[in-house]
Design a protein that fits this description.
globular; 13 strands; six-stranded parallel sheet; seven-stranded mixed sheet; 315 residues
Amino acid sequence: MPSFGENEVLVKTTAASLQYLDLILTENTAGFNIPLPFIPVSEGVGVVESVGKNVSRWKKGDSVIIPFIPRWEAGKTTHFHNALRTGMQTSGTLAEFTVQPENTLVRTPTNLTHEEAAALPVAGLTAWTSLVTQANIKAGQTILIQGSGGVSLFALQIAKIFGLKVIATTGSKEKEQKLKDIGADEVINYKAFPEWSSEVKRLNNGVGVDVTLDVAGTETINQSILSVREHGYVGLIGFMSGGQLSFNIVPLIMNYIRLQGYSVGNAQELNDLVNAVEKNNLKPVIDSIFPIEHTQEGFYRLKSGKAFGKIVIKF
């Protein structure tokens, strides 16, 4: 049982959610060189087990979301905030108990199960801050959603709440209908259209979209840039095909395109997301739920690329 301080909260984990970052950390394929032994996984929720004597916000039994960046309460990030991330510089959520600071815990939405809420602190918050805080999306705009991972599906759902037209891409015939079922207006199979930016424009009256979130990096960045219109926004949020980018800057300059790297968000923004989830009864897309005894199977499911939505570990 971990010890905790006067301003800290002991949280009993109820569910954790897997993401691509967890996979590359456990396989050590990105050079992070995490020292062993180490507890992985960055997303999770739980129930307050006990609180430090100075804690006033929380009490035993409260359902809470475990923060990915536990020092980041509000405002822009700083070196101090950025130096500590759950499941990276500090132990992850794949543990029965974790110790969290009082000020960055956020309540779970009342309309979600703990398994659903486990998808919010990284995947949900990344989509929310990228679209709402950074891209400043507005009703009537068009967004290109890439793939069917957790962030992309959250982005699709958030875009529909805000009244955007959604064009989605997938390499799976089976997933095309699933994307339409959760709100995609148009779906492009990128295997049929390797230069999918042209198809994006064809489906959007000959012009690029207002916003896209690039989730793959190396192999998709050029098509992402070519898919957006003048003053378009390309959010750099993933590196599933690699982190080295090589692209022609001419369309970037000529079309005044904004490339923005962004990673998750702060506790205040997570609270905004929770409120939006409740008011719109947004339900995260869950691919599968594994009991903690079968965590390895969950990782293999993530690695397969066949998942549609989040993979959750239930305690």
